[in-house]
Amino acid sequence: MGKSIAIMSKRWTNWSGSFTTTPSEIFQPNSEKDIIDIIQKASNEDKVVKAIGSGHSCSLIAAADNGYLLDLQTNYQGIIHFDESTKQLTVKSGTSLQQIAEFALQNDCALDNLGTIVSQSIAGAISTGTHGSGITHGAVDQSILTISIITANGSLKIFDKRTNTEEFNLAVVSLGALGIISTVTIQLVANFNMKITTKNLDFDEMIAHIPKAYTDDYMRFWWAPHTNRVQYWEAHKTLDKADKISNWKFYLNDIFKGNFLHELGLWITSFTPKKIPTLNKLMYKMLLSKENTTVSNFLDAFTLPILVKQKVMEYAIPAEHTEAVLKEIRKVLEQKEHLVHMPIEVRFTPKNEAALSMSHGKKSCYIGIIAYKPFGKDINYDTYFEDIHNIYTKYEGRPHWAKVTYYSKEQLASLYPDWKEFDALKNKLDPKGRFLNDYLKRIF
Ligand SMILES: Cc1cc2nc3c(=O)[nH]c(=O)nc-3n(C[C@H](O)[C@H](O)[C@H](O)COP(=O)(O)OP(=O)(O)OC[C@H]3O[C@@H](n4cnc5c(N)ncnc54)[C@H](O)[C@@H]3O)c2cc1C
C-alpha cells in the first residue's frame, strides 16, 4: 500500500463541527486495491474502518476513534461509465451529488429527486437514506440500480436491484455497516425544468394545504416558529424554459441575506434569546414571504446554498399523522419556554423499499427542527430536541440516520420490520464488526 495515500492528521471534524474524531490514521485511497489493502491492514491490526464522504452527517455515524478513516471524496471520485441509451451512470463512491447532477445536465438528463444540498457523496447520501420532498419521488437510494461493496474479507460484493431485489433492498441504505461502497450505478431520468410556486400561509392554512402533498409533484413547507407564518413551496415538472437568475440577485438573497445576515442575527440572539421571535419574523419576511412563480433547472430548483453550520433532528412520521404532529409541536412551543430557530421543515416521501430507509413501507412526512451554530458557537437546544423527540416517538417516528436522535437500540429495532434480516446480512459479511464504530455498536 503506497504511503502517499495516508495523511498524518490524527483529528477529523465533520462539516458542522458537531463532532471530532481521532482515528489512528486517515487515508485517501485512489483505487479499489488501496481500499482492499487498508481493510486488510485494519484486519491484521484489529482496527475499525470507516469511510467518510463530505462529512455532512451530524450524528456520530462516521466517527472512527482509534480506527482507520477513509476519506473518499478527495481521490476516489469521478464518472466511470455512462450509457446514453439507458441513462445509467456508474460512479466511484466518493463522487458528490453536485458532480452527478452537473454531469446529468450536460447530458440532457436529471436526477429524479434531491435534498436541499448536493455536497454529499453519493455513498454517504444513500447510506443514510438522504431524501428530498415529493410523495411520488423517492429518496436518492430509490434511483440506485447497483452498488458494489468491499467487504471485511476484502472481496467485492455486487448488489443489483434487477437481479436480486430482496438482497439489494437490505444493502442500499446500509449506514456504512456492511463494508466500503466502491461504485454506484444510478438511473438518471430525462432532463426537466421545474415550475415553482411559493405562497405565504399561516399555520392553519398550512394544515389545510397538507392534502396538496398528494397532488403536487414536489411540495414542502417551511414554518417559522414564533411567527405563525409558513412558506408553501410546490413544484411541477415542466418543459418551459428556465428563468434567468442574475448573479447579483443570487448573492444578495441567497448568500448575503439567507446566510450572512441570518448568521449574524443568530449570533446576536445567542446573547439575547428573547429576540429570537423578532429575528424569525424579520428573516421570514426577508427570505420566505414572497409569493411568486419561477422556472428553474432541476438542480437549482431542489437546492439552496446552506453555509451556516447547524444541528438538525428530523424524523419520518407516517404521513397520515402530519397534522397531529405539527399541532403537537405548536402546542409544545406555546407551552414551554423554548425560543427556537427557523425553519421547521416539513417534507413528504413515498413508501421506500430499502429495509433501513426511514420511510420503509410507509408514505412519510419528514419534520426537521434546527439549531444553528452561528460562527461556530454551540447553543444548547437539548430540551427542545428532547421534547420534540417525545412527540415523534408517539407516532412511530423514525429518526434520520445522519441527524440527532435519542432512541435506544431496542426502540430502533422495533421500528423496522426487516431489522433482523439486515442484522443477519451484516453479521454474515462482517462477522468481526470491522465496520462497526461506537455509534453502530450502540444500535446493533
Ligand atoms: C446543510 C445540510 C443539508 C442537508 N440536507 C439534507 C436533505 O435535504 N435531505 C436529507 O435526507 N439529508 C440532508 N442532509 C443530511 C446528509 O444528506 C447526510 O448527512 C449524508 O449522509 C451526507 O453525505 P456525506 O457524503 O457527507 O456522508 P458522511 O456524513 O461523510 O457519511 C455518512 C455515512 O455514510 C457512510 N459512508 C460514506 N461513504 C461511504 C462509503 N463509500 N462506503 C460505506 N459507507 C460510507 C459513513 O461511514 C457514514 O456512516 C443534510 C445535511 C446538511 C449538513
Q: Which key features would you list for this structure?
A:
Uridine Diphospho-n-acetylenolpyruvylglucosamine Reductase, domain 2; 5-stranded antiparallel beta sheet; 14 helices; 21 strands; alpha+beta; binds flavin-adenine dinucleotide; single chain; 8-stranded antiparallel beta sheet; 444 residues; Vanillyl-alcohol Oxidase, Chain A, domain 3; Uridine Diphospho-n-acetylenolpyruvylglucosamine Reductase, domain 3
Shape: globular
Numbering strands along the chain, what is their spatial order in the largest sheet? 17-14-16-15-19-20-18-21
Count of folded domains: 3
Counted beta strands? 21
CATH class designation of the largest domain: Alpha Beta
Structural class by SSE content: alpha+beta
Number of helices: 14
* CATH homologous superfamily label of the largest domain: FAD-linked oxidases, C-terminal domain
